[in-house]
Amino acid sequence: METDYVFCEDVLGSGFNGDVRLATSKERPDHKFAVKAFDFTGVPAQRRVQLESEIEVFLSMDHPHIARLVDVYEMDAHLDLVMECMEGGELLDRIREQKRFSERSTAEAVWQMLLALNYIHSHGMIHCDLKLENYMYDQKDSNHLKLIDFGFSKMCDKKAELKRKACGTLSYTAPEVLDETYTQQCDQWSLGVIVFVLLAGYMPFSGPDEEQMKNIAAGKYVMKEERWATISEEAKDFTISLLQVDPKMRLTAEAALEHPFIANRHFEDQTHVDVGIVKALRDFGHLSRFRRCCMSMMAWSLSSEERSKVEQYFLALDAKHHGAIYYDDLKKVMVDKFHIPQGEAKRAFNALDSSHHKEIHYSDFLAAMITKRVDMNEELIHEAFRKFDTDDSGYITADNLREVIGDTFEGMKVEKLLSEADTLHDGKLSYHEFYSYLTGKEMHFLGDEGAGMISPSIDLALRHQGKCHGGIQPCCCLQ
Predict the structure, then answer these.
(1) CATH code for the domain in which residue 77 is found
(2) What's the pLDDT band for 167 if we cut at 50, 70, 90?
(3) Are residues 170 and 292 in the same domain?
(4) Are residues 225 and 118 in the same domain?
(5) Cross-sheet strand order for the sheet of 5-15
(6) Per-residue H/E/C for the chain
(7) Alpha-carbon distance 177 to 163, whole Å?
(8) Number of folded domains in the chain?
(9) Is residue 374 part of a domain?
(10) Does residue 68 sit within a domain?
(11) Chosen domain end from 84, 108, 123
């Protein structure tokens, strides 16, 4: 942890397992992260296996409206999760400040929530703990919401029933969860509770636990006249359609996105994919494998500000709102709208489908945007090099690549990948070679007028473990 991050004094929150602390990246000091620590001392082995399984689920999440799990550090008795820092605070805090949302603001917020829900549901997951506290804003002056906390989440077939003890927060709990047999639709009930609070400013279910459980089981709640009289029939119908006791009668995430209350309120600022985005996707299909590999690594290091430049285009291409771009979606834009040859569209899709699941994930899309819509700056290159240089030797070797990506990438052996950038033909990449390969430029000293190409000895010093200045500058061992 300490090699890569600097801990701050700020405690962002506390939970059952301890404090959530603020940290910054040594490579990019302006990037903030929330670090959640787990102590395994005295914890049963079965619980550790369960936690690791939950973390695997969280690591697989890749969507504009889901907070990112950036890094995981594991030791024998300790584990640290480094997560995207959501500086805007909880949706709960925002509703406390405003008392209630307007219908337009509610629809905009719920649309974002539904995009995240439809993504996890279409990929076979149940969140199991939706509540106002688990949706957070990425920045203080932002309305961009992200789903957090996958501690109770489970992978489950779309139609399969999960038999498990009730979990989550009672006032948001669906009736079938109390019966300990439920499906993905339990999340939709919880969303209904959230919508109810945003529109009316009070909880539909409250009071002693026994009373809450009785009312939840019966779907009994009061829509106070003084709060609901000015709310449209459309909004009421949407809320009631989510708070249905029978899960089969409840709106699915996909159907909820098509409900007039949502569908009629988020298209005023709809983004249209432009020729620059299409060109970036097309060009990505023509890049070499190692270059695509490097850009994919960089995509996971982008800040929320960098991602925000292009995320609306990803959502615009995601026609089915599944949190992924399918070939038909891409073809409709590239071939039908911009008249790109179909073979080029197919080539771009295959290059972007890094998981080979016949879909383009969010990070795949972000990788294609680097250099075209997102600046490939020196900090970003340095961060990618650090992630590949797993033993901090100052070089990237075939063994390093193997540790990160496996024996091959898109069918090409790591030794062959490395050779693309290995200009010295010594079986390893210095930072200078890596930088030159990605930018097509020779590297020079930062802020040193008239300086020439960086020398190999300084290149190695730049990779010194101390990383004295947190960036690409000569470190103290050269002074």
Answers:
(1) 3.30.200.20
(2) low
(3) no
(4) yes
(5) 5-15, 18-25, 32-39, 78-84, 69-74
(6) CCCCEEEEEEEEEEECCEEEEEEEECCCCCCEEEEEEEECCCCCHHHHHHHHHHHHHHHCCCCCCECCEEEEEECCCEEEEEEECCCCEEHHHHHHHHCCCCHHHHHHHHHHHHHHHHHHHHCCEECCCCCHHHEEECCCCCCCEEECCCCCCEECCCCCCEECCCCCCHHHCCHHHHCCEECCHHHHHHHHHHHHHHHHCCCCCCCCHHHHHHHHHHCCCCCCHHHHCCCCHHHHHHHHHHCCCCHHHCCCHHHHHHCHHHHCCCCCCCCCCCHHHHHHHHHHCCCCHHHHHHHHHHHCCCCHHHHHCCHHHHHHHCCCCCCCECHHHHHHHHHHHCCCCHHHHHHHHHHHCCCCCCCECHHHHHHHHECCCECCCHHHHHHHHHHHCCCCCCEEEHHHHHHHHCCEECCEEHHHHHHCCCCCCCCEEEHHHHHHHHHCCCCECCCCCCCCECCHHHHHHHCCCCCCCCCCCCCHHHC
(7) 9
(8) 4
(9) no
(10) yes
(11) 84
258 plus 129 within the same structural domain: yes
CATH number for the domain that contains residue 206: 1.10.510.10
Residues 14 and 69 in one domain: yes
User: Is 161 in the same domain as 72?
Assistant: no
Rounded Cα gap, residues 252 and 154, in angstroms: 18
Residues 107 and 164 in one domain: yes
pLDDT tens digits, 368-400: 999 888 999 898 999 899 999 999 999 999 999
Take residue 121 and report the two structure tokens written for it: 């549901």
Residue 455 has pLDDT above 50, yes or no: no
Catalytically annotated residue among 71, 129, 149, 353: 129
- Verify whether residue 10 is a known catalytic residue: no
Question: What CATH number has the domain bearing residue 289?
Answer: 1.10.238.10
State which residues form the domain around 40: 5-84
Q: Is residue 327 part of a domain?
A: yes
- pLDDT tens profile 308-319: 999 999 999 999
Mean predicted confidence (pLDDT) in 2-20: 80
pTM of the model: 0.85
Instruction: Tell me the sheet residues that pair with 69.
Output: 83
For 121, residues 6+ apart whose C-beta sits below 8 A from its C-beta are 158, 184, 187, 252, 253, 254
Domain end marker among 369, 402, 426: 369
Same domain, 112 and 247: yes
Do 69 and 103 lie in one domain? The reply is no
Q: Is residue 385 part of a domain?
A: no
